[in-house]
């Protein structure tokens, strides 16, 4: 009988964004301390003597994927919608050196969709991404579930 297990790893990063066209303070550049919960599932590899014996996926491997695909590109970055700002004076300066331009409004909801695509493409074949939960504040988050997106 197949035994599926879910594993979750939590990540934290700092990022700023702005929501152009939003009727509120979030239309201005502001930052958040994000928390991302990544849950994957699969059957534990119970081959005797295998380096990952008993694991669905080594937490270190999951960490490396999320670090490469999400954390490194976005930590301490400014995420803006393409075309939302005509230009910045000294756009290549150290002050504004890490701007991430995206084709969608950089809401928590759209970020979690983007993260699902980034992570899904890098997981081993025997592991499935189950869910993502992206906290924008301690009390506000967006969730993505694979089961909702079949």
TrEMBL record:
It comes from the Bacteria. It catalyses: 7,8-dihydroneopterin 3'-triphosphate + H2O = 6-carboxy-5,6,7,8-tetrahydropterin + triphosphate + acetaldehyde + 2 H(+). InterPro entries: 6-PTP_synth/QueD (IPR007115), 6-PTP_synth/QueD_sf (IPR038418). Keywords: Lyase, Metal-binding, Zinc. Its EC number is 4.1.2.50. Gene3D superfamilies: 6-pyruvoyl tetrahydropterin synthase/QueD (3.30.479.10). Pfam families: PTPS. Pathway: Purine metabolism; 7-cyano-7-deazaguanine biosynthesis. Its cofactor is Zn(2+). Belongs to the PTPS family. QueD subfamily. PANTHER family: 6-PYRUVOYL TETRAHYDROBIOPTERIN SYNTHASE, PYRUVOYL TETRAHYDROBIOPTERIN SYNTHASE. This is 6-carboxy-5,6,7,8-tetrahydropterin synthase. It comes from Chitinophaga filiformis (Myxococcus filiformis).
């Amino acid at each position: 009988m197949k035994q599926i297990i879910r594993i979750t790893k939590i990540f934290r990063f700092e990022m700023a964004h702005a929501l152009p066209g939003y009727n509120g303070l979030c239309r201005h550049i502001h930052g958040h301390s994000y928390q991302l919960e990544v849950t994957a599932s699969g059957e534990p590899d119970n081959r005797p003597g295998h380096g990952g014996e008993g694991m669905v996926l080594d937490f270190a491997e999951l960490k490396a994927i999320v670090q490469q695909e999400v954390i490194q590109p976005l930590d301490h970055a400014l995420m803006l919608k393409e075309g939302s700002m005509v230009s910045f004076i000294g756009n290549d300066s150290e002050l504004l050196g890490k701007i991430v331009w995206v084709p969608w409004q950089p809401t928590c909801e759209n970020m979690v969709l983007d993260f699902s695509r980034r992570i899904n493409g890098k997981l081993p074949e025997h592991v499935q991404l189950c869910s993502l939960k992206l906290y924008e504040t301690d009390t506000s988050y967006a969730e993505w579930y694979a089961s909702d997106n079949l």
